[in-house]
């Protein structure tokens, strides 16, 4: 689109804005009605451990939101000479799960507890047994029940619990609502009603009946909305929070707030049955839209939904790229020490390409990139670990292949349950994340892990902020009775270039050999957790002594 046409779209509000609060970055993306990005802004942030919980401070949430928007707005002004005064529609997305309880005055009762916390094992186990439905430790209901078990003082005062996306949407619109995908990471969803499961709500209320709280669980959960519904409009107070310049006008319609899993599905056109997507970053998760019911309860598999309420099997591993990035950082130091400065893209491409020269199983090497605990393999804590035997073929190619295999090791265990035990059919997997900026390598590894064709779109780098902007556009621009699947196929992705790679037999067989080694070696990782003390713990020991 010409610059003059872009400027016209901006001034006339023929746009959609998506804002996503991710684990390391808050990003704002403004796009036109042809789904082209006009401008983007971002804000880097990090979670902190406070009083035993991973959290982001409430003040940092607001500052980051404002800064990402301001950076996007500044880019609009610089590139198009236009002040952003109106937007066609707005959508908010954020990290799923976690726990944000509020009282009747709208005060946050405890600091935001993120998905990263592994503090709810007792609650998650008890609820899973009662519901006969997997309740992961990350889910909001697990956090709530654990707080009840721990007799935390704030529980009687709760008026609302919500997620991070629901909280931001509430600030901007005054509406206590949530999208179906994000809601499904709070409490189990009944696919027939596309709402919280009534029977399980009653079970939970019976479980805590003797506590005599003034609330029932349904009363403190946000209202569930599906894709395409309007979820309120931005208020004057919302404008004051979002746009410090106060140039933006109130009354802009907002779509239901969504979790990062749902927006990742939208950003990769993965909302149809038998289609899945893999999101690669600090953690890794795969989501498969189901065409059949799961027959049994598996702790490795979450049952969530698409933004339009269809059932999804989700396999989520806490650890993925952190250890690989750390090793590449070490190689960067070496290259700089010998006077060869490489930018990140060059370094990644050179090093990752070496994995294609490796032996199929990685030459007998083994690694665990566990920076934190891993629910799928039963590790409460993690220690990044690299192991080899005297017989291993220790070279750079095998080293890189081993770390790539390890990044998807826990995910593969969960996916094998879906495909082998549950016989879930998968026609294709769409992959997104920074790993796939290097052509072919990441796709081949994931295709080997899944034994399924893997595709990468040229929009894969756009991410969840673009995905929630698409959902905001769908709300405003869908045709009569046009489904989300039809909107994505016929309008958003009709001209998008896609690269597909089929599994290579040698890669698949090599990954299976590696996985046997990976599973047998978990006792080594557990021993490292038990006996390798962290720097923080050593510091505490020194203080005590």
Automatic annotation (TrEMBL):
Family annotation (Pfam families): FGGY_C (PF02782), FGGY_N (PF00370)
Key words, A-Z: Kinase, Transferase
Gene Ontology terms: biological process: carbohydrate metabolic process
Keyword Transferase: yes
GO molecular function, one term: kinase activity
Residues that span the membrane, as ranges: none
Family: Belongs to the FGGY kinase family.
Protein name: Sugar (Pentulose or hexulose) kinase
Species whose genome carries this gene: Marinococcus luteus
């Amino acid at each position: 689109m010409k610059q003059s046409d872009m400027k016209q779209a901006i001034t006339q509000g023929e746009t959609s804005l998506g804002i996503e609060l991710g684990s390391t970055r808050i990003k704002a993306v403004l796009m036109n009605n042809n789904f082209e990005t006009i401008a983007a802004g971002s804000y880097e942030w990090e979670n902190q451990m406070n009083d035993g919980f991973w959290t982001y401070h409430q003040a940092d949430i607001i500052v980051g939101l404002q800064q990402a928007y301001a950076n996007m707005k500044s880019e609009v002004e610089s590139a198009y000479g236009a002040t952003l005064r109106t937007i066609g529609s707005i959508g908010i997305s954020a990290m799923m799960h976690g726990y944000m309880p509020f009282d009747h005055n709208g005060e946050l009762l405890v600091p935001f507890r993120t998905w990263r916390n592994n503090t709810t094992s007792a609650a998650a186990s008890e609820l899973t047994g009662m519901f006969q439905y997997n309740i992961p430790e990350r889910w909001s209901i697990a956090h709530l029940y654990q707080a009840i078990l721990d007799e935390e003082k704030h529980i009687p005062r709760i008026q609302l619990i919500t997620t991070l996306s629901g909280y931001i949407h509430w600030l901007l619109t005054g509406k206590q609502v949530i999208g179906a995908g994000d809601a499904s990471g709070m409490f189990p969803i009944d696919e027939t009603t596309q709402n919280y499961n009534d029977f399980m709500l009653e079970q939970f209320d019976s479980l805590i009946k003797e506590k005599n709280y003034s609330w029932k669980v349904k009363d403190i959960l946000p209202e569930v909305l599906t894709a395409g519904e309007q979820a309120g409009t931005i208020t004057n107070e919302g404008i004051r929070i979002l746009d410090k310049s106060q140039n933006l006008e109130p009354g802009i319609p907002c779509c239901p707030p969504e979790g990062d899993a749902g927006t990742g599905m939208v950003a990769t056109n993965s909302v149809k049955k038998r289609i899945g997507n893999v999101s690669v970053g600090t953690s890794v998760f795969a989501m498969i839209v189901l065409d059949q019911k799961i027959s049994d309860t598996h702790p490795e598999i979450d049952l969530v939904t698409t933004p339009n309420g269809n059932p999804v099997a989700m396999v989520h591993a806490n650890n993925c790229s952190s250890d690989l990035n750390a090793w590449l950082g070490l190689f960067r130091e070496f290259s700089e020490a010998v006077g060869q400065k490489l930018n990140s893209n060059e370094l990644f491409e050179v090093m990752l390409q070496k994995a294609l020269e490796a032996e199929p199983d990685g030459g007998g090497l083994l690694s665990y990139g566990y920076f934190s605990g891993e629910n799928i393999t039963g590790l409460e804590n993690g220690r990044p670990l690299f192991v080899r035997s005297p017989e291993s073929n220790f070279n750079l190619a095998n080293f890189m292949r081993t770390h790539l295999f390890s990044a998807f090791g826990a995910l593969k265990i969960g996916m094998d349950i879906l495909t082998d035990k549950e016989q879930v059919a998968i026609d294709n997997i769409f992959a997104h994340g920074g790993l796939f900026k290097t052509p072919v390598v990441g796709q081949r590894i994931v295709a080997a892990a899944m034994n399924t064709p893997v595709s990468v779109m040229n929009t894969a780098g756009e991410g969840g902020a673009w995905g929630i902007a698409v959902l905001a556009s769908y709300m405003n621009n869908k045709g009569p009775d046009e489904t989300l699947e039809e909107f994505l196929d016929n309008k958003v992705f009709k001209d998008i270039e896609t690269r597909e790679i089929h599994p290579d037999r040698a890669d698949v067989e090599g990954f299976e050999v590696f996985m046997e080694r990976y599973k047998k070696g978990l006792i080594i990782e557990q021993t490292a957790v038990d006996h390798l003390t962290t720097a923080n713990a050593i510091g505490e020991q020194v203080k005590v002594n």
